[in-house]
Model the fold of this input.
Amino acid sequence: NYPIHSIDYCANFLNKKIQSIRDVCHRQKIKCNTPADISYFTNIETPEAAYILGLIWADGYIDNNQNGKKNRNTTLTLIEEDMKTIKNVFYKTSSNWTFRTESRLNKKVLGQLRLSSKKLHNFLLENDYESKSHKSADKILSKIPDHLKHYWFRGLSDGDGCFYISKNLKNVQFNCSSNYDQDWSYIEGLFKFLEIKYSIKRMKRINSKTGGQSNYSFVRVTSIVNVIKLGNYLYQDYETNKIGFP
Done:
């Protein structure tokens, strides 16, 4: 039944968890012939879809050509501990997401979610996800209703952002980092709307040990009043649906 009806049907019929069904099908090499329904993403009407699209903008990537084959995968890789806290959010949008782990020597285990869908792949391409390391996110944000936009920015923050509070509570800040030539206009638009003061820095540093150069940029909020204002915006409704990192 799995190749025809997909994972939800089997999980409900057998009264098993989706991940249990997925693990068995993976071991038995049973593939699903039912294409993924990606209407959650092309017609954004749920907090889960908005959040995932923000997280993919930060930490996801879309495959094009690999080893001469045309791939249509959308992939997100995080530390496994972090992935476990948000994995169910992905399954609410599609049961076709596949999950696997990757061990690394002397490093934390990675968790990876992947969805193979030409329609989702093309949708993300149309909205600049392939060039997100330097372009603004205006296209995808224009497709998200205003009452769901904070979920997209919450996903972005979980991937590329950081809230910091010093032990003496005197240094409070929020940072969001990316490539050196990142277009931060979409973040600037949010901060101006929220009346939050911010600064943007572009850095070029030489590694004294390797001689390599790391170029990056970041947007920073340092006023405790503005950090609280941003936090209240990002985490409104969090206690209701728990979407995102704790």
In short: The chain has a mean pLDDT of 89. The radius of gyration is 20 Å.
